[in-house]
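debug: dumping io for the single-chain case to check the tokenizer round-trip. Nothing else runs in this session.
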Amino acid sequence: MPNHKFAIWVAKRYLFSKKSHNAINIISAISAIGVCVGTVALICVLSVFNGFEGLIQGMFSAFDPDLKISPVVGKTFDANTSEFEQIKKHSSVVSFAEVIEETALLRFNDRQMTAKIFGVSDNFNKVSNIDSIMYDGRFLLNDGGFERAVAGIGIANKLGLNAHLIDPLLIYAPKRNEKINIVRPETSFNQETAFMSGVFVVNQPEYDDQFVIVSVDLARKIFEYDSKTVSNIQLKIDPNVNLKKTKSEIQKILGEDFKVLNKYEQQEEFFKITKIEKWITYLILCFILLIATFNIIGSLSMLILEKEEDIGILRSMGANEKLIKKIFLFEGWLISVLGVFVGLVLGIIIILIQQHFGILKLGGDNYVVSAYPVLLKFSDIIISIFSVLAMGLIASLYPVKYIKPPLSPKGT
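debug: decoded output
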């Protein structure tokens, strides 16, 4: 029998056999339970972070396009070029929408506030899922006679807007090429009106509290842009094609003067913060788990003392120090393996129960979901297993290192 197989066989016998001192059994059980609880915590906490990330990503996805083209330098650019014509005809591009994005002053009755005017072309609902997040009314930017507007729910609440009002929303923007008239400052602003057609809700303040969607023609008019000027281009990509490849092809067509961003990159800062929070929590849990694995040190130390006679017998049978140390190293590691296996099974069961039944509630009625969202990723399972087993191995090395070699006979 190879040395490592023999070492594992003996380690398993030591792990499951009854010890002469009951305290060793208790400490070994506590060690395994500590590893088990730590594994459950790692799996569950990482899955909750994944759930929140997926939930928020789904909210952003309703508004953000598959790909967004914007200039590297400046706020606007000319979209009437051969490169953009080539992108329109690209086999993977399903829809192509032009956008003007600028800040303006909104006024309704006696209330006013600043907001981002999001002027979009008529097919904006084809590059986004805006229809799925309409809270009141419908997505309509021009009814043939009047300009219409769709506001975020935060703006609607602050100004007292809804989709059934007959009074118009007033939009003010400073004239681009004129100085402010101190005597009559109102003449220094362009003014346009739009009637409310709907209210959307993304459940993210970046959109709900800042954006008012109008037609791109109205936005160009109030901000004094010509028909070729845009702030960004938004694309809907065929879901059956490789998005990464399409993004690379479009970037190649446009060159270095433009950046092409996917949905993740459009909210890169937010997702980076989420990932940082996730991995900081992971490190804190690993530290707690490392403390829990210190029980393995106590368990192994006591087992080594108890098995001194067995160690002597193994030496007399020809076992070297390396094999003896390997036996007790595997003993400690098997405690971790047992804890990881049980913890992994329990963690997955808890996650599946939460996913299907939502047992653990967030509390209150002001949340997007009533229960904690969870999403189990295979990569998190592998990371958790590797982390726990690595810490178990480190904890096992310390007592094994101090197994005493046999004393040399006197006079030699």
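debug: round-trip ok. The chain has two domains: 3-60+270-401, 67-262.
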